[in-house]
Amino acid sequence: MVDKFRSEGIRNGETGGKTGRSSSKLSTGFILVLFILLVITLNICSANSVDDGSSSIAATQGFTIYNYAEGLHFILASRSNVGLPTPSSYMPSGGDNHFEVTRYLIPLPVNATVRYDVFNTSETKVGEFTVNMNTLGPLISGYGNINLSGPISYFFGSTPYRLVIVNA
């Protein structure tokens, strides 16, 4: 009699255990967890991404150069790996320029360089300076080499992304 019930159960699709249902629930739960992780990852990446038309995952780090040198103004002479400064390429005494440097979410180095010519109030060139701005992945960034010539010096502002140029 027991054999009869066993054979009828097998004929009706029962396997005699819970293996089919528990593995189905397990795989559904696993897929749900993977989907949630994918959504979280995409949200984090899109919150930090730059919409420049490329498909890379990147953000930017802002760097600001301040001109606190009395009687001197700066004109941007050259730049590499960085966009145009804001508000303009001309930096009067008391002014500042802001640059955005690409920062990838994986440790890829980006080195940006700007060079300014320094002029006095008589419009005579009295010096120049070159500034390197570096990023390496999402956590490491800052100024690199800073080369000055003429009657100027520098110090860092309240954050490592603020460079202040002053009279020597």
Structure description:
By secondary structure, the chain is of the alpha+beta class. It folds into two domains: 2-48; 58-167, Mutm (Fpg) Protein, Chain: A, domain 2, CATH 2.60.270.50. It is built from two helices and nine strands, in the order ααβββββββββ. It has a five-stranded antiparallel beta sheet with strand order 3-2-5-6-7, with no helix packed on it. Strands 4-1-9-8 form a four-stranded mixed beta sheet, with no helix packed on it. It starts with a helix and ends with a strand. Residues 46-55 have low confidence and may be disordered.
Helix content, binned percent:
10-25%
Residue-averaged pLDDT:
82
CATH top level class name of the largest domain: Mainly Beta
Order of helices and strands: HHEEEEEEEEE
Radius of gyration: 30 Å
Net shape? rod-shaped
Instruction: Look at the helices and sheets and give the structural class.
Output: alpha+beta
Q: Domain count, please report it.
A: 2
Taken as a percent bin, the fraction of beta residues is 35-45%
Could you describe the largest sheet, including whether it forms a barrel? 5 strands, antiparallel
Q: What's the helix count?
A: 2
Unreliable sequence segments: 46-55
What are the salient characteristics of this protein?
168 residues, alpha+beta, five-stranded antiparallel sheet, 9 strands
Describe how the helices and strands are arranged.
Blueprint: H1 2-11, H2 19-48, E1 58-67, E2 72-80, E3 90-91, E4 96-104, E5 109-120, E6 125-136, E7 140-149, E8 152-156, E9 162-167
Parallel strand pairs: 1-9
Antiparallel strand pairs: 1-4, 2-3, 2-5, 5-6, 6-7, 8-9
